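Open question from group meeting: does this chain pack into something compact, or does most of it stay loose? Before anyone orders reagents, we agreed to write out a predicted structure and look at it together. Recording both the input and the output here so the notebook holds the full record.
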Amino acid sequence: MWHSFRFLRSKPDVALGIDISSTSIRLLALSRQGEQHCIEDYACVALAVGAVQHGVIYQIDCVAQALQAALKQMRVSSKEAIICIPDSCTINKQIQVSDRIQPQDLDELVLIEIDKHIPYPIEEINYDYHVLGSSPTQPGMYDVFMVASRTDYINHRVQALQLAGLSTQCVDLESLAIQRAMQTSWMDAQQNTILVLDIGIMHLKSLVLHKMTIIFMHEISRVGDDDFGRNHSNQRLGSVDNSSSIESTSTFSTQSPPTFRGLSAESKIAMGCQQLIALQHQLLSQINQILQFFHSSHATKSIDQIILLGDGAKQTDLVAFLTEQLGISIHRANPFVSMHVAKQVDYDAVMDDAPLYMLACGLALRA
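Structure tokens returned:
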């Protein structure tokens, strides 16, 4: 038995965060001098359909080849990377334990708790835990955050990096990486309740941060063709591209793209606009559903801000549309707002792509 989320503790000069999704791989290289970070380079490469599904790697060679292609585009030499595993592939839970328990007994207690929640033999599980401190609600108890995942889910990621010539410095949890990026880039909202929406091509993920602590999570899988995210995803080929949480999954289908054969240019534009409007309203409906789920379990809290990230966050006029419909302050994510940018990186391009690199940034910040 070993701890999957504790690989190496060294801190390279340049930290490399790698976001492996169902449709692409995004790499971000950050350097650090004191408290100041600098974007050294970044890249994105599309993945073949089926290589990664629902956070699970099914084609390790395909992912490794995409990683190699992305590394060739980047002007960094770091070979140590920080990756993450989606929350949907884990069991993560906050538990309370007596403050009298000995450190050597805590590991066994966590294993017993994990065994209650994961329907696999314990030898097929990797896990980690962190003592958060004294429980604010249970005197004489400690709050402990634990996370566990099937060994294969992690090993496949590590193997893909090895085939690409990289070593794994650390394996993080997706939600914690986004939380870390938010804590760095939204310093003026430390006391707020913020809904973070990751609008991907294959999913709509949400998490709510209250005083920068995760209190709610929800994921919606998207089935069918989705031009909403795909048409506005990053294609920059030059550098191409914790309190208890509530997790649930639902599904909605998107309409197939319209057929434009035989139509005039004006008709094509009109049909494209109609489809975009329909997709915006569909997204609005799903956000309202997420808000209902959140308020049903957190009736005393209201959302102060919504932060958009992912492929769909770059869609033109989306912020204005959602702000008008929801009446909530909405912004595109920009984890780079207070960072320097290396001379070899196009400043305007990286700032435009910022919503796509929230997760990769949160990973690189862990180094």
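Observations to bring back to the group:
The first strand starts at residue 14 and ends at 20.
The chain has a mean pLDDT of 84.
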